[in-house]
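Following up on my earlier thread - several people asked me to post the actual chain instead of describing it. Fair enough. Here it is, all 206 residues.
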Amino acid sequence: MLLMDEIITGFRLAYGGAQEYYGVKADLATYSKVVGAGLPLGIIAGTDEVMDRLGSTGDPALDFKERVYYGGTFNGSVPAMAVGIAVLSYLKDHPEIYDKLNATGEKIRRCLREVVAEEDYPVTIVGEGSLFMARFVQGEVKSARDLANENVAALRGLYPYLAKYGVFIPHVHFAVISAAHGDEDVELISQAYRQAFHDLRATKLI
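Reply from S.P.:
Thanks for posting it. Predicted structure:
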């Protein structure tokens, strides 16, 4: 079975998530964040064959042998479901939103790479679509192995400096942009990273 964690990528990289974006199909996938728009909402989705294992046969003894138990504290929450339907309906009716999101994300990554190159900082900018992140390694990052020797002190030190210059990103987390972000935000973000990298070098973290 191919399992995909689409908690962050689902309905963000594309309406069909990372599966559509990369041209693959998972047997089982999980979704949350974008769909819930801040409300507690999680989704398990899969092929008929896989999802059938979650359904009850009505016979407890048979279910114990042949079915997989699952539960959720907020299962069937009416407000969360209403929000989820509204979000997905809007995204389905406005597919152009993904072109804007991904173009803005690519522009931010390009600008940040220019900032890194200006002062030859030991940083690699990673991300895809509307996701971006600075990692304190040099060279291409293709897997967790490429981050084995990362300058973790610099990574942790980055986020307070970014907040100081007006850009809040959850600690050691991918930055995610929305359709509300535009060129002015790209410039603000780029300048915040420029100042943050400068401060990290001044404090000898990089």
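The CA atoms of residues 95 and 194 lie 33 Å apart. That should answer part of your original question.
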